[in-house]
Amino acid sequence: xIDTRQQHLSSLQVQISQITQNLIEENASLKKENDRLKSRxxxxxxxxxxxxxxxxxxxxxHTISQSQVPKFEEERKQLTExxxxxxxxxxxxxxxxxxxxxxxxxxxxxxxxxxxxAKCQRGHGDAIEFIIEAGxxxxxxxxxxxxxxxxxxxxxxxxxxxxxxxxxxxxxERTYMKVFHDLYGSSLDGRWRTILIRGQCRNIKVEMARxx
Length: 212
Fold this sequence. Notes:
By secondary structure, the protein is mainly alpha-helical. The chain has helices spanning 2-121, 129-140, 144-152, 171-184, 190-198, and strands at residues 142-143, 205-206. Residues 20-96 form a coiled coil.
């Protein structure tokens, strides 16, 4: 009977020992898992802090950006206005260049005549007759579009050779408008400017009255 009890007691001790060992091992495992979770939680807390700081930074930047929107809009408006102005100035320059073309052509013919005569007079070769003739025509015959250009570009407003940008019509200019009408049988108006810009009828020439 005693042996049976001892055996039973020994068996219980073995079981208790086994259970204790299992609990110790499980506790160690749980401790290790707890440490791992603590470490991970620490990293997550750090990431959360960083995300909060980044979010605050983005909020500040957004606030600054929003405050700068009116400034950017004003700058965009100014740039748009400047671009419109430059386009307008570019169109005016192109128109002015187009207006100047017949004047340049006339001046070139006259200056080439001078060089052709000087070449002959200074013994550098015979004069080329058609160059001299073209220069004579440019100097002494009417050139409808060259004369239109002189009025439109302001060269006929005064006795000064320089162009004037004054908007009004001077008495000096009005006198030459009468001369223009006598030469070409037409008044000076905006319609001729349109014709000139379009490049129509570019080679109209009229003989000026002798002594005029």
